[in-house]
Amino acid sequence: MEVSGGIRHLLFSYVLINGILITLEAKEEVLLDMRAAGRELGWLTWPPNVEREGSQKSQVGWEVHQRTLNGSQFYTYQVCNVEEREQDNWLRTTFIQRHPSASRVFVELKFIVRDCNSFGEGTLTCKETFNLFTSESDADVGTTFRKGQFRKVATIAPDEITKRNEMHLNTETRYVENLSRKGFYLAFQDIGACVAIFSVRVFYKTCPATVKSLAVFPETVARGGEKQVLREVSGTCVENAESEEQPRIYCTLDGEWVVPVGQCQCKPGFEEAEDSCRECQPGFFKADASSSKCEPCPDNTQRLNPGASFCPCMAGFYRAHTDPITGPCSGLPSAPKDLEATSNHLPAGKLLLSWNPPEYTGGRDDITYSVLCQRCESFECKPCGEKIRYDPASMGLTVTRVSVSELDAHFNYTFTVEAHSGVSVLVNEAAPRTARLSSTTLTTSLQHTDPPRIASMRLVERDSTSLSLSWDVSPRQLVQSPSVHYELAYRKKDNKLDVTTYVVLKLERSSVKISDLAPGTAYLVKVQAFSSDGSSGGSSVEEQFETLSDEHLNKTGVILTSAVGGAIMLLLVIVILVLCRRRSNSHARQGPEDAYFSNPEQLKPLKTYVDPHTYEDPNIAVLKFATEIHPSHITKQKVIGAGEFGEVYRGILKGPGRKEVAVAIKTLKPGYTEKQRQDFLSEASIMGQFTHQNIIRLEGVVTKFKHAMIVTEYMENGALDRYLRDHDGEFTSYQLLGMLRGIAAGMKYLSEMSYVHRDLAARNILVNTTLECKVSDFGLSRVLEDEPEGTYTTSGGKIPIRWTAPEAIAYRK
């Protein structure tokens, strides 16, 4: 047959040009390959072959042809009954097993279609297209063939038609989707065309395993349908990388990865290298999880092994508590230079210390100075004591001079001036202060002072045979000086005869008791003070003191005894009167009001805040107690949690004329009910009425726009319960006590405002960077039920009674 011979000629031509290289961006998993199967195709043709007159077999449908090229066999299916009417020839593949995840497969056809015009005018029924069908099944049905079980996929038409002396190979790809059973068949229907099928390849596409943004994504079958174009795939970070949220990416129907969401970042001590995280090289470090490169270790730090998250300080160098871990280390400052003291043109007992800054500051600019004074005598030095005055101060000096006053003359003073910086507190304090490398000392003494003078004398105690006296010395500081001594002279006063004979006592203290005196006698006394160099400011004025007589002592004893007895009697009378009056008052006060005040139910605190639930419209309460913020002033940065009403973001609030402040932003999730919106606004209305440093501060609300928000101050350390678990054992008792005090202060304020919190738990206490604790979460409803289970119901679920304030149970709040 001429037509059949033309097809065979074209087959050989195709084999010669079959060096076609196919490059696919996506990975293809082949389910059926006609060329790879060779002669083991076993495809079913319908209708079956029939015999005509003369026992000459004739193929009326699809037939397979075999050729050999370079020792390899080549098979094709062809049909060319263009001269016969009403053609309905079917070619069905074998049963194709489907991958469970592949609901969409591709069918790639390579074929030739002859031009109907090349057969002459007698082929009026000739076609130039054929049809592709499919049928799903859970098992191989063998040779059973029912056309009604097949559904049409597409009509296959060539892009180029093959004419008599030329060949045009067409490649068409169609897809079959929404497959759900274990396998399927493909079928090709000929309705009167001259077709040769060279290749049928059935495959599904997969997005190949890949690494993107340091996240590993597994090989994923590309699937979809009318409603699902992209398939979301979750990945995992590569080794030594981490992410705040799980990385995701989407696999398209064509097997390509698109739209990665989330990014993994190398952990501290690692940097990105191609698609992995490698350790920082020795001498480099990275302190946090980020996409940045490792940095060289800063000055005065050690170069450790690979993978350093920070570079520790070298011996003799330190970081202050406020220094960043990424910064350089600092040394201790050297001693101040040129320390000197001068007392010229200064009042007595005063000198001026001055010095120059240290030559080496340790690489810091926070240098301060301290001054220590010691008074030395007989090879022993003691602190000068609190009487010494420093101007402007003795500690935390930022200037290089200080005035010292209230000093005594003729004493050796040793002054030590020490330079400090932010790292000085980290140095071992066991070394003597005067031996530290950051200090310098100076020993000096004052030679000039005013001579001591007796300022006043007074009688301390007397009896019939003795007088106890004391006196003051000017300058005052000489009173305690062991170098000052005194001479006291006294004589008996005689009005008849001028007696000039004195008794002289040499004393080391500014007080004395003179004994062996005559009763009822007047004595004249004077005192003179001497300094260590023997100078004196002169004697005091002679003053008169008199001893008691014996008769006066007897009268005094009688008067004292009478006074004591009278006082005891008066005390007994007062006690009896008080007891009687208290008993009568206890009966007289008992009245109807006592029953009222003795009943705990009547002692409910007066409300000083306004309950927003009393408003018919919650918007009115919000406008009254909260500030409306325009959404353009708010910038969301990242999700930090999820609350009862929606997600909670960290963000920035930048109002007109205000600085940027970090805030927490509570949002109302989409699809909320009116009840949820009222509870959401009620929390803001309650929070807006409180002003206390231990209560979370409301910055404002957004209610006039589509997305409602509550904006509060941002607490960097988050909830107290998690913060304590993450830093277990790191706090001192004083820090914990301060945190407890803050919580108690906040709850005391709420109690004074007559507000019952109903859910005081560590998870509802927020902590900032200064470890200041603040009470939060005012969103619980007021519904309280009588249940034996020890819980009460809120809008967010059931809350144990153990977290509930006693008032909430007692007063049904």
Automatic annotation (TrEMBL):
SUPFAM superfamilies: Fibronectin type III, Galactose-binding domain-like, Growth factor receptor domain, Protein kinase-like (PK-like). It is an enzyme of class 2 (transferase). The chain crosses the membrane at residues 558-580. Its EC number is 2.7.10.1. The keyword Transmembrane applies. One of its GO terms (molecular function) is ATP binding. GO terms for biological process: angiogenesis; axon guidance; cell adhesion. InterPro entries: Eph_TM (IPR027936), Ephrin_rcpt_lig-bd_dom (IPR001090), Ephrin_rcpt_TKs (IPR050449), FN3_dom (IPR003961), FN3_sf (IPR036116), Galactose-bd-like_sf (IPR008979), Growth_fac_rcpt_cys_sf (IPR009030), Ig-like_fold (IPR013783). Residues 634-813 form the Protein kinase domain. Keywords: Angiogenesis, ATP-binding, Cell adhesion, Cell membrane, Glycoprotein, Kinase, Membrane, Nucleotide-binding, Receptor, Repeat, Signal, Transferase, Transmembrane, Transmembrane helix, Tyrosine-protein kinase, Ubl conjugation. It comes from the Eukaryota. SMART domains: EPH_lbd (SM00615), Ephrin_rec_like (SM01411), FN3 (SM00060), TyrKc (SM00219). GO terms for cellular component: dendrite; plasma membrane. Residues 1-26 form the signal peptide. It is a single-pass type I membrane protein. PROSITE patterns: EPH_LBD, FN3, PROTEIN_KINASE_ATP, PROTEIN_KINASE_DOM, PROTEIN_KINASE_TYR, RECEPTOR_TYR_KIN_V_2. Residues 28-212 form the Eph LBD domain. The keyword Transcription does not apply. Residues 335-440, 451-550 form the Fibronectin type-III domain. Its main location: membrane. ATP binds at residue 666. It is found in: Cell membrane. Gene3D superfamilies: ephrin a2 ectodomain, Galactose-binding domain-like, Immunoglobulins, Phosphorylase Kinase, domain 1, Transferase(Phosphotransferase) domain 1, Tumor Necrosis Factor Receptor, subunit A, domain 2. It holds the Pfam family EphA2_TM. It catalyses: L-tyrosyl-[protein] + ATP = O-phospho-L-tyrosyl-[protein] + ADP + H(+). This is receptor protein-tyrosine kinase. It comes from Nothobranchius furzeri.
